[in-house]
Design a protein that fits this description.
By secondary structure, this protein is mainly β. 0% of the residues lie in helices and 31% in strands. Strands 2-1-3-4 form a 4-stranded mixed beta sheet, with no helix packed on it. It is globular and about 40 Å long.
Length: 77
């Protein structure tokens, strides 16, 4: 897992850094569930992995153009 989460205790916020190559229906999703390796003083269990709910208009979240591969041609319903 290359996405990293960093906790800032002073502002009680998390910062996520990383990229994801393929996200099914990512461009039309109402929310994004992001998995990240988290290094903090908090007891997260499960080897320091955490999941974050990220709204689509979150500053810093970017969507690239869709891939032109055969598996990317499935229409959204």
């Amino acid at each position: 897992m290359r996405t990293r989460a960093e906790y800032d205790a002073a502002s009680d916020t998390w910062t996520l850094n990383g990229t994801k190559t393929w996200v099914t229906n990512g461009g039309i999703a109402d929310i994004h569930l992001v998995a990240a390796s988290a290094e903090s003083d908090l007891d997260l269990g499960v080897g320091g992995q955490a999941f974050f709910i990220v709204p689509p208009k979150t500053p810093g979240l970017a969507m690239a153009a869709s891939s032109r591969r055969w598996y990317a041609r499935v229409p959204h319903r």
